[in-house]
Each structure stands twice: as C-alpha cells, then as structure tokens.
Amino acid sequence: MPSITIRSPREALDRAARAQIAATLTRRVMDIEAGGSAHPAALDITWLMFDDWAEGGVTIAGEFISTANSFGPILVQIGVPKGSLDDAKREAIAATVWETIAPHKRDGTPQPLDIWSQIQEIDEGNWAAGGQVVRLRDIVQIATGRLILHPPATGTASAPAESAS
Questions:
Q1: Dist. CA 43–CA 29, nearest whole Å
Q2: Would 165 be classed as within a structural domain?
Q3: Residue 133 φ then ψ, to 5°
Q4: How many domains does the chain have?
Q5: Looking at the domain assignment, is residue 157 inside a domain?
Q6: Which residue, 73, 74, 80, 120, has fewest beta-carbon neighbours within 10 Å?
Q7: How far is CA 36 from CA 26, 28, 31, in A?
Q8: Residues 84, 123: contact at Cβ < 8 Å?
Q9: Which of helix, strand or coil describes residue 158?
Q10: Helix (H), strand (E) at residue 31
Q11: Closest CA to 41 of 149, 146, 133
Q12: 6: helix, coil or strand?
C-alpha cells in the first residue's frame, strides 16, 4: 500500500502528464510491492499526491531556482510498510519512477539529477487509518479485500497522561 507524493515545480507537469503518471505509477509501484498483479482492493488504498512548489519555493546550493519552464528537480517520495520491499523491489521502483516521469519533460532529455526518488519504509505501528493503528498484517488483509476497517466509537480516544510537576 504505497503512498506516493510527487514534489515538482508547478509548471513541470501538465494535467495530461499528471493523469498518465498517476495511472501508471500507482499501478506499477503497487504491483512491484505486491510481487505481481495487485488485488483490486490494494489499489483502493494506494494513493498519489502532487505537491507543487512555486517560484521561491526551492533552493539548490542556497540559490533559489526559477520555476519558469523548469522540469526539475522532481522528488518522488514513496512510503511503504517496512518489510514489504527487498533490494530488487527497491531497484524496480526507482527504475519505474524514472521511466514513468522522464518522458514528460517538454524541452529535451531529462538529466539523471532531474528526478529523485526516496523510498521510505514506515516502521510497524506507524500507519493509522480510521482512528486506529494499522499493522502490516492488517494492510495485507485490507489490500486483499479480507478486512474492512470500521471507525472507533466516539469518545474512545484518551488524552495523554499529565506529568506531575
């Protein structure tokens, strides 16, 4: 159940490029993580977000970069449950990110440092949905359609204990 965030200059990717990237990258990364064709329920918990930055939003070597006609840098962050990837799957995800995004550069060939990936493995117990912690075994059951989460009863959250002063 990867969560994917693509951070890029606002002008880097038009709507058609975003639609194609979202459809392709979501499916391919989920299939890689699943080790084959992902169950349709897995796609329901696989999301991709575009996070654009405007002029003055990023520096390289301490200098602001112009977003006008800028393709990169593009940072793709992929969060997955810890233990769901091995080195071969990480390599496949890195290649998939490049192969999916690079063709959308409008003004020539992208350079290797135009597109970066960060594969972030989220420790067990650090995913939550519906007001409850979701563990890897739960994610596997959700992704295969065998578990449906229900929201907790109202008022079940407790405040942290106050420290004695």
A1: 10
A2: no
A3: -70, 135
A4: 1
A5: no
A6: 120
A7: 14, 9, 5
A8: no
A9: coil
A10: helix 15-34
A11: 146
A12: strand
81, 126 in Cβ contact below 8 A? no
**Chain mean position to CA 75:** 10
Distance of CA 17 to the CA centre of its chain: 17
Maximum Cα–Cα distance for the chain, whole Å? 63
pLDDT in tens for each of the 165 residues of the chain?
789 999 998 888 999 999 999 999 999 998 998 887 777 777 777 889 999 988 878 888 888 887 765 677 899 999 998 888 999 999 999 999 999 999 998 777 888 888 999 999 999 888 888 888 888 888 778 877 777 777 777 766 655 545 554
Domain residues for the domain of 75 are 3-143
- H or E stretch at 92: helix 87-101
76 sits in which H/E element: strand 74-81
Does the model's pTM come out above 0.90?
A: no
Strands 3-9 and 74-81: antiparallel
26: tokens are 């979501």
CATH number where 35 lies: 3.30.429.10
Separation between Cα atoms, residue 51 and residue 3, nearest integer Å = 13
